[in-house]
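Title: Comparing notes on inverse folding

I've been comparing how different people in this forum approach sequence design from structure. To keep things fair, I'm posting one structure and asking everyone to reply with a full sequence. Here's the target:
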Protein backbone atom coordinates (compact mmCIF):
# COMPACT_ATOMS: atom_id res chain seq x y z
CA UNK A 1 0.00 0.00 0.00
CA UNK A 2 1.40 3.45 -0.92
CA UNK A 3 1.07 6.47 1.35
CA UNK A 4 -0.99 9.36 -0.02
CA UNK A 5 0.59 12.80 0.18
CA UNK A 6 -1.19 16.18 0.40
CA UNK A 7 0.04 17.37 -3.02
CA UNK A 8 -0.16 14.09 -4.96
CA UNK A 9 -1.07 14.74 -8.60
CA UNK A 10 -0.50 18.48 -8.31
CA UNK A 11 1.88 20.63 -10.35
CA UNK A 12 3.84 23.38 -8.59
CA UNK A 13 6.18 26.03 -10.01
CA UNK A 14 8.85 27.56 -7.73
CA UNK A 15 11.08 30.50 -8.70
CA UNK A 16 14.43 31.15 -7.05
CA UNK A 17 14.79 27.38 -6.58
CA UNK A 18 18.57 27.18 -7.07
CA UNK A 19 19.36 27.97 -3.43
CA UNK A 20 18.06 29.45 -0.20
CA UNK A 21 14.36 29.65 0.60
CA UNK A 22 13.15 28.63 -2.88
CA UNK A 23 15.31 25.49 -2.85
CA UNK A 24 13.79 24.44 0.49
CA UNK A 25 10.23 25.15 -0.72
CA UNK A 26 10.75 23.15 -3.93
CA UNK A 27 12.18 20.20 -1.98
CA UNK A 28 9.27 20.21 0.46
CA UNK A 29 6.55 20.51 -2.21
CA UNK A 30 8.11 17.53 -4.02
CA UNK A 31 8.24 15.56 -0.75
CA UNK A 32 4.54 16.31 -0.36
CA UNK A 33 3.82 14.73 -3.74
CA UNK A 34 3.83 17.66 -6.19
CA UNK A 35 5.59 17.55 -9.54
CA UNK A 36 7.83 20.59 -9.08
CA UNK A 37 8.88 22.88 -11.91
CA UNK A 38 12.00 24.54 -10.50
CA UNK A 39 13.43 27.69 -12.03
CA UNK A 40 16.40 30.04 -11.52
CA UNK A 41 19.52 30.98 -13.52
CA UNK A 42 22.10 28.72 -11.81
CA UNK A 43 22.03 25.31 -13.45
CA UNK A 44 24.28 23.72 -10.78
CA UNK A 45 21.91 24.66 -7.95
CA UNK A 46 18.92 23.35 -9.89
CA UNK A 47 20.69 20.06 -10.62
CA UNK A 48 21.56 19.62 -6.95
CA UNK A 49 17.88 20.15 -6.14
CA UNK A 50 16.83 17.63 -8.77
CA UNK A 51 19.26 15.06 -7.32
CA UNK A 52 17.84 15.58 -3.81
CA UNK A 53 14.23 15.38 -4.98
CA UNK A 54 14.83 12.24 -7.04
CA UNK A 55 16.76 10.57 -4.22
CA UNK A 56 13.70 11.10 -2.02
CA UNK A 57 11.42 9.58 -4.68
CA UNK A 58 9.97 12.88 -5.94
CA UNK A 59 9.62 14.41 -9.40
CA UNK A 60 11.00 17.66 -10.74
CA UNK A 61 11.42 19.53 -14.04
CA UNK A 62 14.25 22.07 -14.24
CA UNK A 63 13.86 25.31 -16.18
CA UNK A 64 16.95 27.53 -16.24
CA UNK A 65 15.59 31.05 -16.74
CA UNK A 66 16.64 34.66 -16.16
CA UNK A 67 13.54 36.50 -14.97
CA UNK A 68 14.83 39.62 -16.68
CA UNK A 69 14.69 37.97 -20.11
CA UNK A 70 12.04 39.65 -22.28
CA UNK A 71 9.65 36.69 -22.79
CA UNK A 72 10.96 33.78 -20.68
CA UNK A 73 8.09 33.86 -18.18
CA UNK A 74 5.48 33.94 -20.93
CA UNK A 75 7.16 31.07 -22.82
CA UNK A 76 7.27 29.01 -19.62
CA UNK A 77 3.51 29.50 -19.23
CA UNK A 78 3.01 28.27 -22.80
CA UNK A 79 5.11 25.15 -22.12
CA UNK A 80 3.19 24.35 -18.92
CA UNK A 81 -0.11 24.91 -20.75
CA UNK A 82 0.93 22.44 -23.46
CA UNK A 83 2.23 19.79 -21.04
CA UNK A 84 -0.15 19.99 -18.07
CA UNK A 85 -2.96 22.36 -19.09
CA UNK A 86 -3.06 23.76 -15.55
CA UNK A 87 -0.94 24.93 -12.63
CA UNK A 88 -1.95 24.05 -9.06
CA UNK A 89 0.64 26.06 -7.12
CA UNK A 90 2.74 29.06 -8.13
CA UNK A 91 5.48 30.14 -5.70
CA UNK A 92 7.06 33.42 -6.84
CA UNK A 93 10.02 33.58 -4.51
CA UNK A 94 13.07 34.77 -6.51
CA UNK A 95 14.42 38.10 -5.36
CA UNK A 96 17.46 40.35 -5.36
CA UNK A 97 18.69 42.71 -2.70
CA UNK A 98 20.23 45.38 -4.90
CA UNK A 99 22.40 47.66 -2.78
CA UNK A 100 22.00 48.63 0.86
CA UNK A 101 23.01 52.27 0.41
CA UNK A 102 21.71 55.82 0.84
CA UNK A 103 18.59 56.11 -1.29
CA UNK A 104 19.92 59.23 -3.03
CA UNK A 105 22.86 57.16 -4.30
CA UNK A 106 20.89 54.32 -5.90
CA UNK A 107 21.82 54.02 -9.57
CA UNK A 108 19.39 53.32 -12.42
CA UNK A 109 21.14 49.98 -12.92
CA UNK A 110 20.30 48.88 -9.37
CA UNK A 111 16.72 50.21 -9.61
CA UNK A 112 16.17 48.42 -12.92
CA UNK A 113 17.33 45.03 -11.63
CA UNK A 114 15.53 45.24 -8.28
CA UNK A 115 12.24 46.35 -9.80
CA UNK A 116 12.51 43.88 -12.71
CA UNK A 117 13.08 40.81 -10.51
CA UNK A 118 11.13 41.72 -7.36
CA UNK A 119 8.11 43.52 -8.84
CA UNK A 120 7.78 43.35 -12.63
CA UNK A 121 8.52 39.60 -12.83
CA UNK A 122 5.79 38.79 -10.26
CA UNK A 123 3.36 40.99 -12.26
CA UNK A 124 4.31 39.06 -15.41
CA UNK A 125 3.76 35.75 -13.57
CA UNK A 126 0.29 36.93 -12.59
CA UNK A 127 -0.57 37.87 -16.16
CA UNK A 128 0.89 34.71 -17.73
CA UNK A 129 -0.28 32.18 -15.13
CA UNK A 130 -3.72 33.36 -13.98
CA UNK A 131 -5.44 31.32 -16.73
CA UNK A 132 -3.48 28.18 -15.75
CA UNK A 133 -4.23 28.63 -12.04
CA UNK A 134 -7.90 28.96 -12.96
CA UNK A 135 -7.69 25.63 -14.83
CA UNK A 136 -6.79 23.97 -11.48
CA UNK A 137 -9.60 23.00 -9.12
CA UNK A 138 -7.79 25.00 -6.40
CA UNK A 139 -4.97 27.18 -7.79
CA UNK A 140 -2.73 28.59 -5.08
CA UNK A 141 -0.21 31.44 -5.50
CA UNK A 142 2.36 32.42 -2.88
CA UNK A 143 4.78 35.35 -3.15
CA UNK A 144 7.83 36.00 -1.00
CA UNK A 145 7.81 39.48 0.51
CA UNK A 146 9.85 40.98 3.34
CA UNK A 147 9.50 42.69 6.70
CA UNK A 148 10.92 45.70 4.84
CA UNK A 149 8.10 46.69 2.52
CA UNK A 150 4.57 48.02 2.78
CA UNK A 151 4.58 47.67 6.58
CA UNK A 152 8.04 49.08 7.35
CA UNK A 153 10.45 51.51 5.63
CA UNK A 154 14.07 51.03 6.63
CA UNK A 155 16.95 53.49 6.06
CA UNK A 156 19.29 52.41 3.22
CA UNK A 157 16.88 49.73 1.97
CA UNK A 158 15.03 52.10 -0.43
CA UNK A 159 15.07 50.07 -3.65
CA UNK A 160 14.47 46.66 -2.05
CA UNK A 161 11.81 48.08 0.30
CA UNK A 162 10.01 49.90 -2.52
CA UNK A 163 10.01 46.74 -4.64
CA UNK A 164 8.56 44.63 -1.82
CA UNK A 165 5.99 47.31 -0.90
CA UNK A 166 4.93 47.29 -4.55
CA UNK A 167 4.76 43.50 -4.49
CA UNK A 168 2.51 43.55 -1.41
CA UNK A 169 0.03 45.90 -3.11
CA UNK A 170 0.25 44.04 -6.43
CA UNK A 171 -0.59 40.67 -4.86
CA UNK A 172 -3.25 42.02 -2.51
CA UNK A 173 -4.95 43.85 -5.40
CA UNK A 174 -4.96 40.64 -7.45
CA UNK A 175 -6.18 38.59 -4.48
CA UNK A 176 -9.17 40.92 -4.16
CA UNK A 177 -9.97 40.28 -7.82
CA UNK A 178 -9.78 36.51 -7.20
CA UNK A 179 -12.27 36.47 -4.35
CA UNK A 180 -15.05 34.84 -6.41
CA UNK A 181 -12.72 32.32 -8.08
CA UNK A 182 -11.18 29.07 -6.80
CA UNK A 183 -7.69 30.70 -6.84
CA UNK A 184 -6.09 32.06 -3.66
CA UNK A 185 -3.03 34.36 -3.48
CA UNK A 186 -1.01 35.27 -0.39
CA UNK A 187 2.37 36.69 0.61
CA UNK A 188 4.87 35.28 3.10
CA UNK A 189 7.42 37.35 4.96
CA UNK A 190 10.04 34.72 5.83
CA UNK A 191 11.78 36.88 8.45
CA UNK A 192 15.56 36.71 8.62
CA UNK A 193 16.71 33.35 7.22
CA UNK A 194 20.15 31.76 6.71
CA UNK A 195 20.71 32.41 2.99
CA UNK A 196 23.21 34.08 0.68
CA UNK A 197 21.00 37.17 0.43
CA UNK A 198 20.89 37.58 4.20
CA UNK A 199 24.65 37.08 4.49
CA UNK A 200 25.11 39.92 1.97
CA UNK A 201 22.64 42.19 3.78
CA UNK A 202 24.11 41.56 7.25
CA UNK A 203 27.71 40.35 6.86
CA UNK A 204 28.53 40.71 10.56
CA UNK A 205 25.73 38.38 11.66
CA UNK A 206 26.35 34.77 12.69
CA UNK A 207 24.38 32.76 10.07
CA UNK A 208 23.95 29.92 12.56
CA UNK A 209 21.88 32.28 14.75
CA UNK A 210 19.23 32.30 11.97
CA UNK A 211 16.74 29.61 11.01
CA UNK A 212 17.60 27.35 8.09
CA UNK A 213 15.33 27.69 5.01
CA UNK A 214 14.00 24.16 5.71
CA UNK A 215 12.44 25.54 8.90
CA UNK A 216 10.55 28.25 6.98
CA UNK A 217 9.41 26.21 3.96
CA UNK A 218 6.37 24.57 5.69
CA UNK A 219 4.64 27.97 5.90
CA UNK A 220 4.84 28.27 2.10
CA UNK A 221 3.81 24.66 1.55
CA UNK A 222 0.70 25.02 3.71
CA UNK A 223 -0.44 27.92 1.49
CA UNK A 224 -0.20 25.61 -1.55
CA UNK A 225 -2.73 23.11 -0.19
CA UNK A 226 -6.09 22.89 -1.97
CA UNK A 227 -7.90 23.31 1.36
CA UNK A 228 -6.21 26.65 2.08
CA UNK A 229 -8.76 29.46 2.42
CA UNK A 230 -6.62 32.52 3.24
CA UNK A 231 -6.48 35.15 0.51
CA UNK A 232 -4.65 38.48 0.21
CA UNK A 233 -2.81 38.04 3.50
CA UNK A 234 0.79 38.80 4.48
CA UNK A 235 1.85 35.90 6.69
CA UNK A 236 4.89 36.23 8.95
CA UNK A 237 6.68 32.88 8.82
CA UNK A 238 8.40 33.51 12.15
CA UNK A 239 5.33 34.88 13.95
P1 LIG B 1 19.07 33.85 -2.23
O1 LIG B 1 19.66 32.70 -1.53
O2 LIG B 1 19.93 34.94 -2.74
O3 LIG B 1 18.16 33.26 -3.41
C1 LIG B 1 17.59 34.12 -4.37
C2 LIG B 1 17.02 33.26 -5.48
O4 LIG B 1 16.47 34.15 -6.50
C3 LIG B 1 18.07 32.39 -6.15
O5 LIG B 1 17.56 31.11 -6.43
C4 LIG B 1 18.34 33.14 -7.44
O6 LIG B 1 18.71 32.23 -8.46
C5 LIG B 1 16.97 33.76 -7.76
N1 LIG B 1 17.13 34.89 -8.67
C6 LIG B 1 17.69 36.09 -8.42
N2 LIG B 1 17.73 36.85 -9.53
C7 LIG B 1 17.16 36.09 -10.52
C8 LIG B 1 16.92 36.30 -11.90
N3 LIG B 1 17.28 37.43 -12.53
N4 LIG B 1 16.34 35.32 -12.62
C9 LIG B 1 16.00 34.16 -12.02
N5 LIG B 1 16.19 33.90 -10.71
C10 LIG B 1 16.77 34.85 -9.98
O7 LIG B 1 18.02 34.60 -1.31
P2 LIG B 1 16.83 34.09 -0.35
O8 LIG B 1 17.10 34.69 0.96
O9 LIG B 1 16.56 32.64 -0.48
O10 LIG B 1 15.64 34.92 -1.00
C11 LIG B 1 14.42 34.35 -1.43
C12 LIG B 1 13.32 35.38 -1.25
O11 LIG B 1 13.17 35.65 0.15
C13 LIG B 1 13.58 36.73 -1.92
O12 LIG B 1 12.41 37.20 -2.53
C14 LIG B 1 13.98 37.62 -0.76
O13 LIG B 1 13.71 38.97 -1.03
C15 LIG B 1 13.11 37.06 0.34
N6 LIG B 1 13.52 37.36 1.72
C16 LIG B 1 14.64 36.78 2.26
C17 LIG B 1 14.99 37.06 3.58
C18 LIG B 1 16.19 36.42 4.23
O14 LIG B 1 16.50 36.75 5.41
N7 LIG B 1 16.90 35.52 3.59
C19 LIG B 1 14.22 37.94 4.35
C20 LIG B 1 13.10 38.52 3.77
C21 LIG B 1 12.75 38.21 2.46
P3 LIG B 1 19.92 32.43 -9.49
O15 LIG B 1 20.90 33.38 -8.91
O16 LIG B 1 20.40 31.03 -9.67
O17 LIG B 1 19.22 32.96 -10.71
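Reply #1:
Here's my take.
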Amino acid sequence: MTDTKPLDGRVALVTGASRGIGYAIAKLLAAQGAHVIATARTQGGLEELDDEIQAAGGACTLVPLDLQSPDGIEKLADIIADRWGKLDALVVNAGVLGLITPTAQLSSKVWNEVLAVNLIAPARFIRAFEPLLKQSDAGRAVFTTSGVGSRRAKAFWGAYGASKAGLDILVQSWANELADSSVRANLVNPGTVRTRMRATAAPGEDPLSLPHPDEIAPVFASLCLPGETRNGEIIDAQG
